[in-house]
């Protein structure tokens, strides 16, 4: 039999959870305003699609896609309100800000896909251009323009407003900005309207309506039906050029990249942090964009062992919090330890003494000539030493050297040894001149060749 859960909570279905979250958002009065505009948008879109079919105008169809984009914009605004009401959870510790970034990215990509569809249909129409009826072409243009402008100016869409300002300018904005500078040079009062750059959504709405008006006039005057296809291509290109920078910007946010305009400020703050009292090193720093206007980051700070962790943490957080809203700082003290050689007896299973040479350190001076404090020769006339150093004296443990099989010199030279007293009296031996090469340390049991123990079993000189 299976496990019986007496107090198990009932699992909600997907639609049940959706209704629960909608009830959370519906508590705000701004939500009902968005829903009202959504209903109006669906109504206008339905009428526009019928007029596109009756007029057989692909240019009006391309302009209607902007109205559908407005519907996605309203949905993004609704998601933004829901994100502001939700708090971070243990599963989503950074909150749900990336959801509105994803909504902006999806809306702009869908608008570009619609533009590509219009381009594909326009190319087919150039081969077989149908007849265009202008009965409701101008009416549909003004209905779509009025609703688009009314929606953009009536509802404050925070995600798209931020993206339109933070993303790079489109080619349409650049050309209009150049034209606006010329106009503002003649009429300075228009500088507040056209400069520094216009809203890209308002600009594309006005440009699309202008293209449809030209289409209507040319068809009415000369029955030039190909201008409808040309206007559709122009509207599709303007849509693609306007949405592309926004999709790139939101895509970089989803990829958790560092914004280029804050890299210099972050470097300056990190240099200031590295100069704080007690800070030794700042490493493993990583900063990324969490949402629109919010930056997250993590950094490791190594401090001195005598530094106050809480004080350093407070100073580091205070410096970086001006730019990084969600910050994780890991502080660890300096764990540098002086290396020490092991002393004492060596286990037989670790080292094989047949492969090693034990070199005792002989006393360099007599016992009566050493000072027990400084281990240096004493002079009757010299003053007492001011400092004492832990220099090696006569009682030094034997040093064990590994017997690595190195190559002898092989030059026909005698690499023997001579006593220390003879070395002092006769000077250094010069190889090849009759003298022998010795060691300045005067060790008496060093083998004649490195890496071989050929002195074993031979009498000492």
Automatic annotation (TrEMBL):
Report the transmembrane regions from the record: 34-51, 63-84, 96-117, 137-155, 201-219, 225-244
Subunit notes for this chain?
Heterodimer with SLC30A5; form a functional zinc ion transmembrane transporter.
Which keywords fit this entry according to its UniProt record?
A: Golgi apparatus, Ion transport, Membrane, Transmembrane, Transmembrane helix, Transport, Zinc, Zinc transport
Family, according to the entry, reads as follows: Belongs to the cation diffusion facilitator (CDF) transporter (TC 2.A.4) family. SLC30A subfamily.
Q: What does this protein do?
A: Has probably no intrinsic transporter activity but together with SLC30A5 forms a functional zinc ion:proton antiporter heterodimer, mediating zinc entry into the lumen of organelles along the secretory pathway. As part of that zinc ion:proton antiporter, contributes to zinc ion homeostasis within the early secretory pathway and regulates the activation and folding of enzymes like alkaline phosphatases and enzymes involved in phosphatidylinositol glycan anchor biosynthesis.
Subcellular localization is given as: Golgi apparatus, trans-Golgi network membrane
Do you know which InterPro entries this protein is assigned to? Cation_efflux (IPR002524), Cation_efflux_TM (IPR058533), Cation_efflux_TMD_sf (IPR027469), CDF_SLC30A (IPR052005)
Name this protein carries in UniProt: Cation efflux protein transmembrane domain-containing protein
The UniProt entry lists membrane topology as: Multi-pass membrane protein
NCBIfam families in alphabetical order:
CDF (TIGR01297)
Positions of the Cation efflux protein transmembrane domain: 35-255
| Source species, domain of life | Eukaryota
Residues spanning the signal sequence = none
